[in-house]
Amino acid sequence: MSVITSSISGLSSILKSPGIRKRNAEQRVRFRLPESLKTVLLDFVDRKNIKSYEELIYTIRDGDVDDGNLMQLLTEVQECISLMDKKLSHFVEAVLMVDWVHRNDEIVKKFQGFLLDLLSAHNYYTKSALEKLMPVFKSVGCEKEWINGVPTEEEILVFGHAHGVLRVLLQVMPMACDVLVQVVMNHFPYIRRPSHEHECFIYNMLKVTEYQPRLRLQFLIIIFKRLVALDVYAPRVEVLEQEEVEECFDMDIEETEAKKEYMHVQHIGMKHPIANNLDISMVQLFIYLRSECHGADNHLDWERTKQLYHDLVTVFEQVILSTHATHHVQFLLFYMCSFRVTVAETFLNYLWHKVVSPSVPSIVRQSAIMYMGGLLCRAAYINISILKALIAEMSTWIHTYISSQDGLECVNSDVRVHSVFYTICQTLFYVIAFRHCDLVNTKKNLTFLQSLNLTKMVTCRLNPLKVCLPVVAQNFAAVTRTYQLAYCYTVLQHNARFSMPVIYQDHRGYAITRESTLLDTFFPFDPFVLCRCGHFVKSIYRSYQESEQENVFNEQDVDSTGGKEEEEDDDEDDFLTDQLHGSTLSHSSAVPDMFSYGLSPGFKLL
């Protein structure tokens, strides 16, 4: 056996990664315990024999340790716990690095006993012991992504060994929970690491919360912060560009659609690497939300659901609400609200409280009303009673605000001064235009809309239509004219004559014309584009539906154009799509419900 340099300063290098040293079976050191482990340790502490100590560390770290030798090692090490102060830290590190999670239950139990004895006697090894568990939680040797987000039986067994040790450790040493939170933050996989590491790590962090519920909120905040980072680095425009099937030129449309469907069914994943990491990570969260709120009989556990809801709202407020224009992470709240209408109503009331609270920063109030509008429009589980109640709340607030401004001699119509007012107006217009089919299906509902006094809103001195997104204003104007709720076109034409357009370049360098007074708007529940976890959202997601009156009205508009050729009409639609929404997609008919990133109310063009 080769001898390692006998200098204490060289000990740190013993525990480092082997680097270029190949770890083939032929080159591995045969493990052999010394006759007296305690003597070797004492001789090193007394500086009598450093070489034997270094040789022992090397053989433990890189030697072939079978089950019998490992059991003997742990037995003898446990007898020397009292000696293992900071002077023997390298030896302790070497023992902690031994592969024990792939062994039998007897060895796992023995290692658990050693670890508890060690940390009870020398608690300064707690952080090091927890850090040695993190690689196990990231991967156990298999690099294949899980099917349907479920780990293999082998991985479940190995993860179970690690969790068994961690569970007892946290029960015996409650203070270790704080150390664990810091270790998890430091070892969370980087956003560009393989997707399997992300799903393993998130799966295991959520598993910890099952036996340590008090860590759930902290872990959820850590996980959601990483999901938001992934979401930000995977813009929807980039994801859609990479998901386009390159073989479209070589096959017909039916084959292309069939291939897309096949890819989704087989869970091949996303082409965009960061979007793929986000997709596979969110699967774990969707599964967790479902399993945590539903028992074995698939019935909703209301008490557990309420507890998880409160944690998620805290995470939403601290992480998501303060981040502008994320596209996918918020769908976890969208999914949670679908479990019971009471959850959705409570969340909407929470958002409305944020909106009307003067102590909340205006940017947060604007973001809250956008999330509120997105839920009212896109959530299929939002019933008409909740919809009408919140529309009435918004309408009352708007009229109160208008009355407070009408009493002034001079009104400052700067968007920045009245940003919350304008955002609430746009949200109200958006919700009415998007959900008008539900709001005009009975005489009672139509009377309700007439009672909102929409004419006063659009003709007030603050002129909210001037700052609304054009597609929202146009669709709202069409709906209100069809049902004689308000007459907006005169205001829109006046605004068009006195507007000052601004020309700027988009991310591709194309010139885009936009009104200088438009609100900074985003629609948090744009169509979901991640393939793996899309099925969690699909059944509860609402797409825009035109009423029969609108279809007749649009056909009359088309007939009145003078009989242009169909090809020319398609070109005009493409042009309008590009101009109104900044879209660079090649054909508007292919994406009737998906406009540019962050600017998609989901309307079809009129």
Automatic annotation (TrEMBL):
GO terms for biological process: transcription initiation at RNA polymerase I promoter. GO terms for molecular function: RNA polymerase I core binding; RNA polymerase I general transcription initiation factor activity. Residues 565-576 have a biased composition (Acidic residues). Residues 551-592 are annotated as: Disordered. One of its GO terms (cellular component) is nucleus. Residues 580-589 have a biased composition (Polar residues). It holds the Pfam family RRN3. Coiled coil: none annotated. PANTHER family: RNA POLYMERASE I-SPECIFIC TRANSCRIPTION INITIATION FACTOR RRN3-RELATED (PTHR12790:SF0), TRANSCRIPTION INITIATION FACTOR IA RRN3 (PTHR12790). Belongs to the RRN3 family. This is RNA polymerase I-specific transcription initiation factor RRN3. It comes from Coptotermes formosanus (Formosan subterranean termite).
